[in-house]
Design a protein that fits this description.
alpha+beta; five-stranded antiparallel beta sheet; four-stranded antiparallel beta sheet; 25 helices; 66% helix; 7% strand
Amino acid sequence: MLSFFPSISTIFSNIADVVINRTSLVLKISLILMAISIFGMMSISMATGNDTYQDKNSESSVISNHYSDTFSQESIIILVECDDPTSPEVLKYIDSIKSPLKNLQYISSVSSIADLLKEANGGVIPLSDAEVTEAENSISSSVLKRYVPSNLMTMVMIGLQPGLADSKKNAAISNVKSFVSSTDIPPGVHVSVTGSAAFSMEMGAAMGQSMMTLIMAALVLMVIVLGILFSYVSHRFLPVVMVAVGLLLTFGIVGLAGVQISMAAISAFPVLIGLGIDYAIQFHSRLEEEARSNPLSIAVKKTIVKTGPAVMYAMLATAIGFFAMFVSSVPMIRGFGLISIVGVITCYVTSLIGIPTVALYLNYKAKGAGKSKQSEYIDKGLSKIAVTMAKNPVSVLLVVLFVAFVGIQLDSQINVNTNENSFVPSDMPAKVTMNKVSRTMGSTDSAAIYVAGSGVTSLETIRWMKEFTDFEKKAHSQINSATSIADYLVSPATGELPQTQFELDAALEKVPEDVKKQYINGNNEGVIQIGTIKLESGPKKSLKTQIESDLTLITPPPGITARLTGSFAMFTDLIDNIVDSKETMTYLGFILVVLFLGIVYRNVNAITPIVPIIAIVGWNAVAMYVMGIEYNPMTACLGSMTIGVAAEYTILVMERYIEEKEKTDNVIEAIKHSVQKIGSAIMVSGFATFFGFSALTLSSFPIISNFGLTTIIAVFFSLIGAIVVMPAVLSLVDRISKNIKNVDQELHKTHVI
């Protein structure tokens, strides 16, 4: 093999010398780094909200964030449930909590039905049901429905100050909850706190708990697997220790670098446990093998020099697969890729240095002169399978590639889900409360139309807003409300807008300030809020397209622009971003891995891992289609992640095959011996990785548990690719190479004659 680095063996030899001659120093440095990592780990924060789904520097994100800061901010909703939400007693309670709420830190606005009814009733709360009814009749039905979506509930809207850090948002939510719980709630009335800010806070807290649960579950599963399958070596649980140290160092780097953890990034840690245990097992297994016939210092050197480069190439191929995620426009996916790259490199270095160092410190002694019966059975069984595949390469590859082809065709038919509500636990209190609202009034995620230009409060623009919202409600059955500042300016008596600018300005003065803030900002900005029934991702995307077409049909006045923004637009755009990025990531991953292998090996063997990798990506699609698993911001990166994981196993098989091929020209014997020597190590590491990834399925977050299911399927297929497909590919490539060589020799003989 021609190494990418001409002096690679020298580099690893020097590393081995340092570990052997400076064992104590290496241990001390390692302990210092671990201590620093503990400090860094304490600085990790959770990332939630829109910035995890869209690039904050893109035009759409800038407009969306400006819209959120100016109009919607992040909201807290106090949900008031009772038999009569507009009774004088309930209205009096709601009015009594407004002023104290508004005085709480970080609160910018508080609005409710009580404000509107007071305005319509001469500035005082109606004292009887008759007065309430009379006041309600003077309010637009669309406005009334916004605050009183049913006969059983009403809502108090609380706006947070724009640009708050997560800690301050959480403080504001906690303050609101504490205040509400201390108020004198009328009998028969149930009050709860929900809204986007409360949803994000609870999601962040649940994510943090989920992360620790997943990591502990993965480590426990590692211990069980190694206890059963890795019993033929001394100190069988040493790889778990190395993974724990590698994970700690990764946490430290992430925390010190100020990288926030999103839902996707949480899933990277169990993935890293699975990959990290693989590296550790490869080093430990080779150390055990070498220590049986060599003094410990020589065994350590051989382990580092022989296994270090092979595992490094596998690790780099995996990192390249993760690197392909950086082409995605979804920050959550890029974050997963970044943490995964940092993690695999850290876990590799930890095992490369850590296992030999600990072995020297403990005066490691191999368990016996030969392998255990268990590992011998595994190696012999796997080698028989590999030899059978190698003897029938064409028929094997025809079946393998046919299934992969079917999967590639099915991939485009797999649904894409971008509904954030479906990503979180079904019993999360904020979600339960928000579901109550959505069941009554439809989606809680309104389609916001951002209106900008000089003269947003001009009579012409206000009339256009009214015309557009009336059209939307009539044209689309999915729309159940469409509200703008125009609805607050309609005359209760005539149902018409003011006829002159002077009359309009006078009507605008009567609108409560907290209500006005939700729809206009001075004379240059405004917003139209379109409420919808509860929609899945596909119909939501279709509705977005229709609304955008309506904006070109019913155009705003000259000098005024209008465009969809906010979460509704973001999550529908996310569908296209996921579809585009998942294909791009997969193709780029293939290209980068091919280039990497070509540069490293510089011979025909470089292409052999690509065949099983292509097959595995296709098989994944078949499995997802059959099992009804959807693409989402996490499973979208499955293709590029699979490329990285599958490359590792296939490269390890290829590396050992090349080593054995130097001893014999018989390809079948070379395949047999290579699988016999590393079969059990690959199987143990494969199952350890499998169970490490399976910890993801224990997550209460559906988006994470579904990702866990797809990853363990990918790992299982990767093992099949390494043991079943790879031998067939190596055998076929050898046949083709020999045939080409024979043809060249015949042509040369003919030319000589």
